[in-house]
Design a protein that fits this description.
heterodimer, A: 321 residues, mainly alpha, two-stranded antiparallel sheet, B: 256 residues, alpha/beta, six-stranded mixed sheet
Chain lengths: 321, 256
């Protein structure tokens, strides 16, 4: 990507709250950001170590509940809640990673699905703690209190937009740092050929657990952000649809690329909403499905790898004409 | 002795792949393990490198018992293997393959990767130089940025050697490195194995091609039906009546 596109793109993203005057559109962008963090986290496992987690909504949900419960029931600062939304799902990721010691492929998928199922049941049935299907209302908004300044509440959508944007950038940089080092190569080695990886001294368990912890912690953080944004958490956060949406974003955006999940998240959050503007609900879902199939059919590697491959070819044609 | 296997037995259900095999590999040598198909050669390799737990017996490396250790730990001790069927990181380039093989030479962990850009950059520069050295050593210098799967079969096998060498082995175990190669490719591989030994790396080789084995080995071990039937220098093994029988069938020794 040229520097010019980067500057223009950055300017558009940074000024969005100023010119996106429709609050619903801004809400869509915030959700796109939360999904971008989720997709980035899933990509660490699916894209780099090659293991599909179909229980990712569980980490998202644990993060959301942890943050909501701490700030509602104990009235702790939402910032501590957000920290817990990283630590607790990270621990859950550690357990999943250890259990996955000998489980790969389909067995890993089943393990993660079962885990998500369990956690979801707990959220519905542990009435005393979670308030069951009624959920937890009144989750406080995040506040920024700098010494000497009045506390700034991120209650407005435009303020929250910047918090989510910062989270996306942070998650992206974290993935970038991991991938561009020896750690990232070890993760990719597990995806490419685990037997050969072991024979050159790569400890599969260590790196699988590491990827699971990082991925779960990141997904949990997205859950925390979601809780303090919608101000309400219910067992709905564990919906399988959330996991499927993350998988679609990663695969269609380009798994195993850094930009892919972000592009996928924005595309597949904005697209259904854009379709809603033009059509009825039935047509919206139908068109969404057709578009998804078209993307996967014409760009099987995902949007980002396809654009990357098309870039030089287009430039050549541009010069020739 | 750098590697010592004592009384190795491996049974798969009713099949005995190895039946009490003992052997040793001396440092600085090229030692070959030969035998007809199904003799147990690859099983012996799998046991030594931790991919297969023996039913009985022990493996020692420099006096340390390594029986039952997990493969990555054995690799960290300097016992590195290649595989009979071409085994690479297929989605990566030649250079990325070798960089991945260099894993044990790096030190950066998660914390350093996230917090210290400078350390990562320094390590990547150092590993990159090392990768280029290994790639040049096996003669793939001109192809370093190509996809591993775009290489010819012979070059892919060369790349396997490079990935193994990158892990800085003290003992390199090669499982049929020349299988399926043309005559000239085989000569090149034999030369390369000689150069690897000259670098001070002990080579333990499973190979079918007799000419290749006899040309480069200091010592030859012969397996048949899971038993060691001969052990000695190439010339002596070649004359051994048991070996001739195993390869050519009963009665063949009369013509040998």
């Amino acid at each position: 990507m040229s520097r010019l596109t980067l500057v223009i793109g950055g300017a558009i993203v940074l000024t969005a709250p100023a010119w996106v005057w429709n609050p619903y559109h801004l809400h869509t962008l915030i959700m796109a950001g939360i999904f971008a963090v989720l997709a980035l986290s899933l990509n660490l496992l699916l894209g780099y170590t090659g293991q599909l987690s179909l229980g990712h909504a569980a980490f998202f949900g644990i993060g959301a509940y942890a943050s909501a419960l701490l700030s509602v029931k104990l009235e702790w600062s939402p910032w501590i809640g957000l920290l817990a939304a990283i630590v607790l799902p990270g621990l859950a990721g550690y357990i999943i990673g250890r259990l996955a010691l000998k489980l790969r492929g389909a067995y890993f998928v089943l393990l993660t699905i079962s885990f998500a199922g369990c956690v979801s049941l707990v959220s519905v049935n542990w009435m005393d703690l979670t308030n069951g299907p009624l959920g937890i209302p009144g989750v406080p908004p995040v506040e920024i209190a700098l010494p000497g300044l009045p506390a700034l509440s991120l209650r407005t959508k435009s303020a929250y937009y910047y918090l989510v944007l910062a989270a996306v950038v942070l998650a992206y940089l974290l993935c970038l740092a991991l991938i561009r080092s020896r750690v990232g190569r070890a993760l990719v080695a597990l995806r490419e050929n685990e037997t050969l990886a072991a024979s050159v001294g790569i400890d599969a368990t260590h790196y699988l657990v590491l990827a699971a912890v990082a991925s779960a912690a990141m997904a949990g953080f997205a859950g925390g952000l979601y809780a303090h944004y919608t101000r309400f958490v219910s067992p709905e956060v564990f919906l399988f649809t959330y996991t499927i949406t993350m998988v679609i974003m990663v695969v269609a955006g380009g798994k195993g690329t850094l930009a892919g999940p972000v592009v996928g998240a924005v595309l597949f959050t904005v697209l259904p909403e854009a379709l809603r503007e033009f059509t009825s609900y039935q047509w919206q879902m139908l068109l969404y499905g057709v578009l998804l199939i078209a993307v996967l059919f014409f760009m099987p590697e995902g949007v980002v790898p396809a654009l990357r491959a098309a870039g030089p070819a287009l430039r050549r044609r541009w010069k020739a004409s | 002795m750098t590697l010592e296997a004592r009384n190795l037995t491996v049974r798969f259900g009713g099949v005995t792949a190895l039946a009490g095999v003992s052997f040793a590999v001396a440092p600085g040598t090229v030692t070959s393990l030969i035998g007809p198909n199904g003799a147990g050669k690859t099983t012996a390799f799998n046991v030594v490198t931790g991919f297969q737990r023996p039913t009985q017996g022990t493996v020692h490396h420099d006096g340390q018992a390594i029986t039952g250790w997990r493969p990555h730990r054995i690799a960290a001790r300097g016992l590195v293997r290649t595989f009979q069927k071409t085994s690479l990181f297929p989605g990566l380039t030649v250079r990325e393959n070798v960089l991945t093989g260099l894993h044990l030479r790096g030190r950066v962990g998660v914390i350093a990767a996230v917090l210290s850009r400078a350390r990562v950059r320094a390590e990547e520069r150092q590993l990159g130089a090392e990768a280029d050295r290994v790639i040049d050593f096996v003669g793939l210098g001109a192809r370093r940025h190509e996809a591993a799967t775009a290489l010819s079969y012979g070059d892919q096998r060369r790349l396997e050697l490079a990935v193994g060498l990158a892990a800085r082995p003290r003992l390199l175990l090669l499982d049929e490195p020349a299988s399926g190669m043309t005559a000239s490719e085989k000569v090149a591989v034999a030369t390369l194995i000689g150069r690897i030994r000259d670098e001070g790396i002990t080579v333990f080789l499973v190979e079918h091609d007799m000419r290749l084995v006899m040309g480069i080995s200091d010592r030859v071990l012969v397996l048949n039906y899971g038993r060691l039937i001969a052990d000695g220098d190439p010339a002596a093994v070649q004359r051994d009546p048991d070996v001739i029988r195993a390869y050519l069938g009963a009665g063949a020794h009369a013509h040998a």
